Amino acid sequence: MSTIDGLPPLREVINTHGLVAKKQLGQNFLLDLNLTAKIARAAGDLSGVDVLEVGPGPGGLTRGLLAEGARRVLAVEKDARCLPALEEIVAHYPGRLHVVHGDALDVDVLAHLRPPVRIVANLPYNVGTELLVRWLTPQHWPPFWESLTLMFQKEVAERIVALPGSKAYGRLALLAQWRCEAKIVMTLPPEAFVPAPKVHSAVVRLQALPAPRFPADPAILNRVVAAGFNQRRKMLRASLRGVAPQIEDKLAAAGIAPTARAEEVPLERFCALARIIAAG
ω into residue 124 within 30 of 0, thus cis? Predict the structure, then answer.
C-alpha cells in the first residue's frame, strides 16, 4: 500500500512522530497497510461516497479508504499527537481528507458530510460500543449512514451477530439486527496491532435496512429488551414485571412463554410484545 500512495510505511510514521499508543484512549494501531486496505474494501465500492472514520490514529485505515477511492473522508481524532501525521495525508490527497480534532461523542459530524455516507473505523475500545448504540438508535430511520464497517474486540463483534439461545445474544444483537443486516467479515489476531491487545479483533459490517424488520415503538422495545437482559437469569414474567401491568397475559399474547428467559426469545417476538404493550 505504501508504494501505491507514495507515503512512508506506518511504522516509520509512528517513529517520526513519536506516537506511542495510549491505553487510556483505547488505542491499538494497525500497521499492516494490506490489512487496512482490506478493511476499506469490506465497506464496498467507496467511489462517490463520503466516509466517516473515528479514531484514525496515524492514518493507516485513512490511507486505505482514500486509496480505495472514497470521495471524501472525515477523520475525527481526539489525540492531538496524531494530527501532524494526518496532515501529511491531507496534503497528499488535496480536498479529500478533512481532519477534526475532537471527541467523536461530541462532534457534529453531519456538518462535514454529504450523502451517501458510510462509517468505517477501527474504533477505540473504550468508546466503540457507545458509538455503535448511538448510530443504531437515531431519532429517525433510515439513518444518515448507509453502512457501518467497524472493528471491535471479537467478543463484542460476536455479541452483535449473536442468535437466540447463545450466551452472546442480548441487547446489542437485538438493536443491530432489528434495523440492519449484520455479519462478521474479518477477524484479526492480536499481533496485527501495536501494542498487541490481549484479545482477537473482528470487523463487523452492518447494512442499514430501509425500515426495521418488524414494527415496534423504539422506546418501548428498548425498555423491554433492557429489562429482560438486565436480569437475564430470571424468567420474563419476573424480569418484566415492572414494564407493564398484566405482563404474563401480554407475554402469552405475543407468543412468548412467561417462563422463558430473554436469551431464548427471537427479535420478532420482542417486537410483538412491544406492540402489545403500546396498545395498552
Answer: no
Backbone phi, then psi, for 31, in 5-degree steps? Answer: -95, -20
pLDDT of 187 above 60: yes
Q: Residue type for 10, please?
A: L
The cell numbers describing 51, all together, are: 466516509
- Give me the chain's average pLDDT, please: 94
**pTM of the model as a whole:** 0.94
Measure CA 21 to chain center: 21
Q: Give the total residue count for the chain.
A: 280
Mean pLDDT of 25-46: 89
**Residue 22 phi, psi (nearest 5):** -100, 125
Helix, strand, coil percentages for the chain (3-state, nearest 5)? 40, 20, 40
Strand runs labelled E in 80-233: 97-101, 117-122, 147-153, 180-188, 193-194, 201-208
